[in-house]
Amino acid sequence: MIERLLLKLRLRDRVSEQEAAALAELMQPMRRIPAGAEIAVQGAHPQESTLLIRGLTGRVHILRDGERQISGLHVAGDFVDLHSFLLARMDHSVVALSACTISAARHEDLRRLTADHPHLTRMLWSTTLIDAAIHRQWLVGMGRKSALAQTAHLICEQYARLKVVDLVERETFQFPLSQGALADVLGLSAVHVNRVVQELRAEGLVRWRSGEVEILDWPRLTGLAQFDPTYLQLERHAL
Amino acid sequence: MIERLLLKLRLRDRVSEQEAAALAELMQPMRRIPAGAEIAVQGAHPQESTLLIRGLTGRVHILRDGERQISGLHVAGDFVDLHSFLLARMDHSVVALSACTISAARHEDLRRLTADHPHLTRMLWSTTLIDAAIHRQWLVGMGRKSALAQTAHLICEQYARLKVVDLVERETFQFPLSQGALADVLGLSAVHVNRVVQELRAEGLVRWRSGEVEILDWPRLTGLAQFDPTYLQLERHAL
DNA sequence: CGACATATTGATCGACTTCAAGTGTAGTGG
DNA sequence: CCACTACACTTGAAGTCGATCAATATGTCG
Lengths: 239, 239
Fold this sequence. Notes:
2 copies of one chain form a homodimer.
Chain A: H1 3-12, H2 17-26, E1 31-33, E2 38-40, E3 48-54, E4 57-62, E5 68-74, E6 93-96, E7 100-106, H3 107-116, H4 118-144, H5 147-164, E8 172-174, H6 179-186, H7 190-202, E9 206-209, E10 212-215, H8 218-225
Antiparallel strand pairs in A: 1-7, 2-6, 3-7, 4-5, 4-6, 8-10, 9-10
Helix pairs in contact in A: 5-7, 5-8, 6-7
The structure holds a DNA duplex.
């Protein structure tokens, strides 16, 4: 159940058997939820945090006029709302963007974990810091990159994140987002996203159809995107 | 030295005298640095984290073509690079945007703190989570709001953050950012920032000259900005 | 005062939006 | 097996917000 989470953590630092066991013990039974379901609701005060085991989720913000912005994506092995453990109220919703399998850890158990396992606590803390680093890269993309470069960057990021949890095969990964949803991620219109995706295809950088992306030219794609994976902290580093 | 940090923490949860003392003990002597100085450098691997005591700092990203994006601002009482404690390398620089006074906490001391003071650890962790929540609000602003609303939101946010650390007086606070720097925060051009600021003035929402902002019409300003302070977690909430 | 950054204004440009059709394609029920 | 529906994708045309370019104030600090 926590295999992919462990893959991610162990890329960065050693996780002892005791720590892995302590973490595994926390997890509630798995649940399946359909695409579109809300895993956590804006304004709510959850008593547990959700671990994503399979599928894709997004942090969704709804504006007054109904406009939608997605401020983050999560892949298998991510805690999608670990922050709700330490924040009073959700400032956004977490929505399943595809059919998902999830588990959860109760906040009172997490609290105990922070008392008993300081090193593991630091590792979990660091995953939330990487989330923030991803947010910053998105800000750079929205603020200072062209729609094309920003989109390319998102593809690079998704590729890198999924590779860590062993979900890339033959340079191909699942990315089950409609162009409309993608527009809400990138802060663009669906029409423009369509044109940008077409250009990425025409340039021979990716193959992309029905929720599946194949990287065709990684060097040119990362160059276009100005993708530097430092922020994903894929190196080993004792915490 | 840590007064403003304590103001911020105590707004959210109780901090015992022992905890406050443990925190105070960590802090290295104060230092003054001039506007423009780099407090932490992209790519570096700091051995300590910086607490901002006075002044304004920003997280600066530089792109290939020299373009600049500022992905975060910090005010007195904020740890500007607490994340460097748990991340291998800085993915951006932290720059003093005005003359600043800073202190620092060594990472090895912070590590000890996480072992001895789980509750205080959770409180520090939560400050980094609020940082991330601020990133998300900026994403919403950049992606889905007009330049005017986005700018108004930044003013509201800055007002709310500074109020917590007692740096608002007669609805007025220091905001020593040039319009060029502001453009790098908002992802706009300096020319357009100028026009947006003029419109905020013309609408009677703010007075704003030479690095000082006075709020003239809070209800209309927050309305325009769609500002909902939930994400700043200004409520009490046992951690 | 001279020098240099910052603010302001006007004119033109362009990336992305909006609006409006039209084209798959998958699912559903008769 | 074929209507019928629903939704995602695609394309074209026109519009707009904010960028860019360029010139002129207005500080502000040695």
